[in-house]
Amino acid sequence: RPKKPPAKMAQVNRAPPPPPPKSDGAGGVGMVQLHEEFSAKCIDIFEALTVTSRISAFTRCSDTVSDARPGGRFALFSGQITGGYEDVIPAEFIRCKWRLSDWPDGLFSTVRIVLHELGEHEGCRLELLQDNVPARAIEAVERQWKERFFNAIKVAFGYGAVTGAHRQLFSGV
Question: Which residues share a beta bridge with 99?
Answer without folding.
Answer: 82
